[in-house]
Structures are given as structure tokens and as C-alpha cells.
Amino acid sequence: MPETPPRGAPPSFPLGRLTAIGAVLATLGAGFAYAGGWLSPGRITPGRIVDALSERGGDPTGHRRNHAKGICFTGRFEASGEGARLSTAPMLAAGRYPVVGRFAIGTGDPVAPDASGRVRSMAIRIAAPDGQEWRTGMNNMPVFPVATLEAFYELTLASRVDPATGTPRDPQAVPRFVAAHPEMRAFLGWAGSAPWTPSYAEEDYHALNAFFFVDAAGARRAVRWAVLGTVPPEPRSPAELQALGPDFLGRDLVARLGQGPLRWRMVAQLAGPDDPVDDPTRAWPAEREQVTLGTLVVEQAQPEASGPCRDVNYDPLVLPAGIEPSRDPILLARSPAYAASYLRRQAELGQVPALARGAGAGR
Amino acid sequence: MSGRGFSPLQRGVHWLMAVLILAMLFIGVAMVASASSYVPLVAIHRPLGLALLLLVVLRIGLRWRRGAPPLPVDLPAWQKAAAHASHLALYALMLAMPLLGWAMLSAAGYPVVVVPGFVLPPILPVSPLLYALLRAAHGWLGYLLFLTVLLHLGAALFHALVRRDGVFSAMVRGR
Ligand code: HEM
Ligand code: HEM
Ligand code: HEM
Known about the structure:
The complex is a heterodimer. Helices cover about 25% and strands about 20% of the residues of chain A. In chain A, strand 3 and strand 4 form a beta hairpin. Chain A is of the alpha+beta class. The longest helix of chain A has 21 residues, at about 15-35. Chain A has helices spanning about 15-35, 45-55, 150-160, 175-180, 185-195, 240-245, 250-260, 330-350, and strands at about 70-80, 95-105, 120-125, 135-140, 205, 210-215, 220-230, 260-270, 290-305, 325. In chain A, strands 1, 2, 3, 4, 5, 6, 7, 8, 9 and 10 form a ten-stranded antiparallel β-sheet that branches. By secondary structure, chain B is mainly alpha-helical. In chain B, strand 1 and strand 2 form a beta hairpin. In chain B, helix 1 runs antiparallel to helix 2 (about 40-65), helix 1 crosses helix 4 (about 130-165) and helix 3 (about 75-105) runs antiparallel to helix 4 (about 130-165). In chain B, about 30% of the residues are buried. Chains A and B meet through helix 1, helix 2 and helix 8 of A and helix 1, helix 2 and helix 4 of B. The complex binds protoporphyrin IX containing FE (3 copies). One protoporphyrin IX containing FE binds near residues 49, 334 and 342 of chain A. One protoporphyrin IX containing FE sits at the interface of chains B and A. Chain A: Has an organic peroxide-dependent peroxidase activity. Chain A: Its cofactor is heme.
């Protein structure tokens, strides 16, 4: 065998072959552009969702694009061990696990007055010794307003505020949306009737989206978890809350933690056979079995700008083995939207805002 | 060493990685632009990317020990140089991409989950600036890798269909 085989006689001018090569390359390139969404400018990408979230008033630069105003905390999760029969998650085995968390109000404006936050939230990251983590973001309402990504996006667009005037771009947009979306009724019923409290400590927080707990035998059960407050609520009127000043929630938290830790009971509600697993607008019946997973103990608060929660993305799909996501489209959309929001705020904090949208079309 | 062609193992790894890397590039751009498919695609992207890190290390070891057959003697010097430079770029990018993936997740403070229950340690401290830089690098170098693969594929087909000089069959039949 010679070192280099003899050349086959090439055609005098191989136009056909060159065209074929060009066609192969062009097809692959077009496929790549299609996959990356460059050919679908109308698509609701994570980046567009975050663009819309960023336009609801205030300047979110360097902050989360939703739940923008908050306060960090540290504490621990004391697992009862009761969850271990439902899931192999290491932090459900009886024991104590460190927690970094964050309380916030559901706003796009990092300096919004606390009394404007109807929705309040708690996000936690529970760490297991083997490096696995369980992150979850929970809200004080018992149901989510909408059931699909499209509806969420439309509602967010409707909530946009004109930066010049600070008033809604289209004051009729939200009422129009509500009229067309009967699934919002349960949420609106809560927003109109639930008591307003002066404290993060007086609220329950619900994960809303369903997940699956997977036990050692591989059995999967749909669950929704929540943390239930142990401090009796002392409701106030919205006007009374306004009189407490713009930052009463953070002040109240620091004052209470000065007296000692705060506790929440963490429970998992088990779905019945016909309960909706993919729809966070519909609560499951109250009589469904509840398992007490343990106690969340909040020990210390830190300002967000220098606190340990600042660089955490509370992506609800950072899960340990033994907990799996449902197919709920709201849940699945959260992960990429949180990632896009996280990239923006980290790029802004790192003083490289030009990198805030990354390289991808979706960013 | 240089008298032999690519070994069957070298060829096998080349084609396996060719398929997997193209898949990774398509999965990568598709997932970041999709609100509904991101979660299932990332769950493939991460373990596959880390498996490719092991494969590329193996491959570089093979290349080191076994070498590669020489290019045809009548190939113009600039084409030889381009071939060598592009192969070097492909090796460098194949190594850099998974390392960047691992490093950027570390800088963002995510657990680097290979498969549920198995977490790699972080290789960098948590830092907003590092995360922003590495995330951008993972994206732009990903696009550069795709362009380099396109060039490489074009050149391979040029050898196969136009020059018909045995370079293509070196990677198919060994020699
Ligand atoms: C499609 C639906 C949703 C989208 C697009 C969305 C979007 C976002 C974004 C972009 C952030 C900022 C993340 C960051 O920069 O770290 C955020 C924060 C948050 N979201 Fe959502 N969200 C959605 C649904 C939900 C649901 C169903 C819940 C609740 C149960 C929820 C609870 C939270 C909480 C608690 C935070 C604050 C996390 C923290 O304190 O760091 N979100 N959301
Ligand atoms: C051969 C290896 C790899 C290739 C070719 C590759 C390619 C890509 C591409 C093209 C993107 C989209 C970038 C953009 O459009 O901005 C991407 C995103 C991503 N890659 Fe990779 N990747 C590789 C390895 C890895 C590894 C090993 C990890 C993790 C351990 C990883 C994690 C990610 C993540 C998390 C994203 C999305 C980031 C976000 O949502 O902001 N990749 N990758
Ligand atoms: C998709 C179609 C592909 C075809 C048709 C193809 C074809 C070939 C051929 C014919 C060679 C032999 C060149 C020679 O004899 O020097 C080669 C070498 C090589 N290929 Fe590919 N390839 C493809 C994809 C890829 C991909 C995706 C990568 C990596 C990202 C890659 C990386 C390499 C490298 C690094 C070499 C040089 C081997 C060495 O000399 O050490 N190839 N390829």
C-alpha cells in the first residue's frame, strides 16, 4: 500500500459535487439556526419573558426580575424523617440540614413599598452532606393565577408600566386579561379576601406546582409542599401597613429574629387519584393526606446586597434524587426564566452588563 | 507511528464524538431558546457534556500514543496548514466546552448534577463576574465550534468527493 493512495481522476470542473457539499453545509447551518430559534422571532423565549418581567416599573438592574425586593436569611431544616418513606431525598432523612433562604415580595421593582406586595414569598436552598440540594420558591397564595406559559406571558405584558409616567401602559390590559381568563378566579378570590399581615413570619408559603416524590422502591407520588407559619397572624388593613413605612417587612423580620428563631412546619400534601398535577390554578381538596416533613428554622437575617442569598438562583428544578418535576408547564418554564434572570443580574453585578443576554437567541 | 492509519478505536471515537458533539450543539442552542423544552434538554446536555469530557481526554491520549497518518504529499501547503490548525482548534474546543460548562455552573453556585444523586464538586468559587464571563464563553465558543465543524465537514467532503485522495477513507476504513 502506498503512503497516499493514487487520486481518482476528478471531473474537469466538479460543479455538481461542490454544489452538493455546499448544500450539505447550508442544510446543517439552517437546521442550527432553526433549532436556536433564530428563525422564529415570535416565539416566547425565556429572554422575552424576562424582558417583560423587567418592565413592570422601577429599575431592576442588578436585581431579580421578579420578587425583586427581598432579604436573605440563614437557618436549618430539621427533617422529621416522615418524608423518608415517600422519597429518597437525602434531606428528608431525619436530621438537620443547613438552609440559605430569602423572603421577598412579588414585584419587579427592587424599591417597591412593602405594602404594595400582595404576593410574598420564601425561597430556600436545603443542602445535603453529599452535595445534593433542594431549592424551592414558595408564595403565600394557595393557587397560581394562570396555568400556561402563554397566559403568564400575556399577563406579564399586560402589567407593564410606562417608565416615564410610572403608570400602566394600558390600564385596560389587565382587566381585559382577567375577563378572558376564568382560571384566575381562585387567585383573585384569595387576593381580595385573605388578610394582610405586617410580617413575613405570619404567612404560609406554598410551592404551588406539583412534584413527584420517589421512594426507595421507585414508587412515584404526586405532592405539593408548603411551609406553614407558627406565629398567629395579626391582620391589618392595607392603610395600616402603608403607615408602617416602605420597608416594614425587613425591619419586622430582623426585630423578631433578635428575639429568637422563627419556625415553619414543612408539609407535603399527597394528590388523590384525580387531582390535577399539571395545573397550579387548582388547589387539591383540603382533606388530602398531609405528611409533616420537618421544621424549617429561620435563625438570622442579612441584607440582600451582601447576604448569602444574593448569588443563589432559587431555580425550583434544582432537586435531589428522590424528587422529580411534574409536567406542569408553569413549573417547566420557571427554570429557563430564572436562569435568564440570574444571568442578567450577575452580569450587572459583575459590571459586565454587555454579557447580560449571553450569546443565545433566547437570552 | 506515522506510517499507520487511524486505529479502529480512534475511528470509532471520532465518529461517536462527531455525532454526540453535533447533538450537544443543537441541544444547547435549542434549550436556551425554549421555555418548554429547557428542562428535559438540560437533563441530557449536562451528563452528555461531562461524558464527552472523558471521551476527549481518552481521545487525546490515543492521538498522543498512536499519531495520525500523513496528509497526501500533493496537498498544497496552505491546505495542510489549515487542516492541522483546524484539528488543533477542534481538540481545544472539545476540551474547553465541557470544562466551561462545569466551571460556569460552579461559579453560579449550582450543584453540578451529572445524574440525579451524583454531584461533582465545584471547580471555581461562586462569583457574578466569573459566571457572566464563563456563560458568555460557553455560548460564543459553542458557536465557534459549530463553525469549525462545518468547515471540517466541508473539507472532509471535498477530500471525499472532489480530490478523492484517501483522506476521507482514512477516517472510515483506516487507510
Ligand atoms: C411561568 C411562571 C413563572 C415565571 C416565568 C417566573 C419567573 C420568575 C423570575 C424570573 C424570578 C427571578 C429569579 C432570579 O433572578 O433568581 C422569580 C422569582 C421567584 N418566583 Fe417565579 N416565576 C413563575 C412562577 C412562579 C411560581 C408558580 C411560584 C411559586 C410558587 C414562583 C415563586 C417565585 C419566588 C418565591 C421567587 C423569588 C425567589 C427568590 O427569592 O430568589 N414563581 N420568578
Ligand atoms: C461538548 C460539550 C458541550 C457543548 C458543545 C455545549 C454546547 C452548548 C451550547 C451551544 C449552549 C447554548 C449556548 C447559547 O446559545 O448561549 C450551551 C448551553 C449550556 N450548557 Fe453546554 N455544552 C457542552 C458541555 C456542557 C457541560 C459539560 C455542561 C454542564 C456540566 C453544560 C451546561 C450548559 C448549560 C447549563 C447551558 C445553558 C445555560 C443557561 O441556561 O444559561 N454544557 N451548551
Ligand atoms: C460530521 C462529519 C465529520 C466528518 C465527515 C469528519 C471527517 C473526518 C476525516 C475524514 C478526518 C481525517 C482527516 C485526516 O486524515 O487527517 C477527520 C479528522 C478529525 N476530525 Fe472529523 N469529521 C466529522 C466531524 C467531526 C467533529 C464533529 C469533530 C469534533 C468536534 C471532528 C474532529 C476531528 C479531529 C480533531 C480530527 C483530526 C484527527 C487527528 O488528526 O488527530 N470531526 N474527520
